[in-house]
Write a structure and sequence with these properties.
- This protein is an all-alpha fold and 172 residues long.
- Helices cover 83% and strands 0% of the residues.
- Helix 1 packs across helix 5, helix 2 packs parallel to helix 5 and helix 3 packs antiparallel against helix 5.
- The longest helix is centred in the middle third of the chain and has 27 residues.
- It is globular, with a radius of gyration of 16 Å.
Length: 172
């Protein structure tokens, strides 16, 4: 329980997190109401959730915070499971508000996007490569591959992200 509380405090006190959430909501509102994009605005709100997941995971590697976390919770699997649960619990209300602002969308898909982005950032250990890989998939490669694959976008997403992370991390 102490590790979950510590992870929640670390997540909530990230300065860039609040800014990312506010910008995501503002852009979604502008697209949904001012530009009359309606339900299509949720596709662009997904970029904010990608950044949110990447920031949550990559912030551990910037100042060596991961070492402190591993001292408190030495089992990596347990630590990352706690991080995932806290991330899901913290981002679900944010996803609900975003879907309400957009007027459409899938809350579970936004939360899974955060988890996927956090996983890629954990593997790549950096914010910029993780954002590039995940946004590159969602907005460039994903729509291109989705036309060829019948099973939907999640299977090619997993295959692409694992291949990209393996390629980028082979020297790490």
């Amino acid at each position: 329980m102490n590790s979950a509380r510590a992870e929640l405090i670390k997540l909530v006190t990230l300065p860039a997190l609040a800014l990312t959430v506010l910008l995501t909501w503002a852009v979604t509102a502008v697209l949904a109401f001012a530009l009359d994009a309606g339900p299509e605005s949720i596709r662009y709100a997904r970029a904010g959730f990608v950044v949110l997941g990447v920031l949550a995971a990559a912030s551990e590697y910037d100042g060596g915070q991961l070492r402190t976390s591993l001292v408190c919770t030495p089992r990596r699997l347990e630590l990352f499971a706690v991080k995932a649960v806290v991330l899901v619990l913290a981002t679900t209300p944010l996803a609900v508000v975003t879907v309400l602002i957009a007027g459409a969308g899938d809350i579970a898909a936004l939360v899974l996007t955060v988890l996927l982005a956090a996983a890629v950032a954990t593997v790549l250990r950096g914010a910029v490569p993780a954002v590039a890989v995940v946004l590159g998939y969602y907005y460039v490669l994903g729509p291109f591959v989705a036309d060829w694959v019948v099973d939907g976008p999640w299977l090619p997403a997993a295959a692409f992200l694992v291949a990209a992370a393996t390629f980028l991390c082979r020297d790490a």
